[in-house]
Amino acid sequence: MFGRDGKLYMSTAGGDAQDPSTLAGKILRLNDDGTVPKDNPFVGREGYRPEIYTLGHRSPLGLAVHPTTGQIWECEDGPNGGDEVNILVPGGNYGWPLVSLGRTYQGPWHSQKFQRDGFIDPVVYWTPAIAVSGLAFYTGDKLPKWKGDVFVGGLRYGEVIGTGQIQRILFNEKMEELRREALLTDWRHRMRDIREGPDGLLYVLVDDDDGAVLRIEPAS
Ligand SMILES: [Ca+2]
């Protein structure tokens, strides 16, 4: 995804997200010809790959540019719980695997602490997980009550197969969460991605054998 600065942001998963000499579990920032921007946060620092913009990510699936601040927002899946939405700052460390709000699949908490100095907390988290997928800001005029809100897809809820949803999340000006609302839960499908179309409507990608692209329109 391209940011307002014209740079390409891309997410990676796997490997050691805390090891700055690898590209795994990171958000990378590149020029559009694949070279490294000179103003990347770790350029010239020994032991750090210069492509790294942020580190400590588990399984990032959504990236979006905030419509007013221009900051990059990211969402990622936790293990058994601990899905997150993060606001990225250059050079930030988002904690995985040292800090997590998720449990391991055997039941115990993944990490002993939910917060630690030096790691940036998520602005939204889910435990149990919704298996958060795509991320979008709604900026259109067709659905005026939703303008400025954050939307994410969910592939399931509470590790229960055969569930799924869209979530709408409202923030205040300080980017603190006010409310969240689950949508399309009765449908019980995996919601893979959500985007605003050029027509100001929302489009949802359904990831199932009978998959579809949904268009969300005003009721009247
Ligand atoms: Ca985190």
Give a structural overview:
The mean pLDDT is 95. With 220 residues, the protein is mainly β. It is built from no helices and 14 strands. It has strands spanning 8-11, 26-30, 52-55, 60-65, 72-76, 83-87, 124-126, 132-137, 150-154, 165-171, 177-183, 191-196, 202-206, 212-216. It is globular. It folds into 2 domains: 1-126, TolB, C-terminal domain (Neuraminidase), CATH 2.120.10; 130-220, no CATH class. It has a 4-stranded antiparallel beta sheet, with no helix packed on it. It has a 4-stranded antiparallel beta sheet with strand order 8-9-10-11, with no helix packed on it. Bound molecules: calcium ion.
Summarize the structure.
The chain is 0% helix and 33% strand. The protein has a four-stranded antiparallel beta sheet with strand order 4-5-6-7, with no helix packed on it.
List keywords for this structure.
220 residues, 2 domains, Neuraminidase, mainly beta, four-stranded antiparallel β-sheet, binds calcium ion
Q: Helices and strands: which structural class?
A: mainly beta
Level-2 CATH architecture of the largest domain: 6 Propeller
- List the total number of helices: 0
Could you give a short account of the major beta sheet? 4 strands, antiparallel
Please state the CA-atom Rg, rounded to the nearest Å. 17 Å
Helical proportion, percent range: under 10%
